[in-house]
Design brief:
- With 80 residues, this protein is mostly helical.
- It has a domain at 28-79.
- Helices cover 79% and strands 0% of the residues.
- It has 2 helices and no strands.
- Helix 1 (12-50) runs antiparallel to helix 2.
- The chain starts with 11 loop residues before the first helix and ends with a helix.
Length: 80
């Protein structure tokens, strides 16, 4: 006897959907954090190279990383 195609989905389907959503947003958060961290690290390298007294490169790199990370996050959210 074949299973009825109109029968309700197994109970694991909502849990699987929740897990996929959680992993997706965890990945988005990791992308944002990585972009900010890499920007700050690059800015720190610029500060050291140009021997700046104030961490202007670090701040600029972190802001640039934030902007690029947010662009990536928004693009990722719109894609789904």
């Amino acid at each position: 006897m074949e299973p009825d195609r109109n029968s309700p989905q197994p109970d694991s389907t909502p849990r699987l959907k929740t897990t996929k959503t959680a992993l997706r947003f965890a990945g988005i958060g990791t992308t944002l954090a990585s972009a900010i961290g890499l920007g700050a690290l690059g800015g720190k390298q610029a500060d050291d190279h140009f021997q700046l007294d104030k961490p202007l490169g670090t701040a600029a790199g972190a802001i640039l990383g934030l902007a690029l990370g947010m662009w990536s996050v928004l693009r990722n959210i719109q894609a789904k």
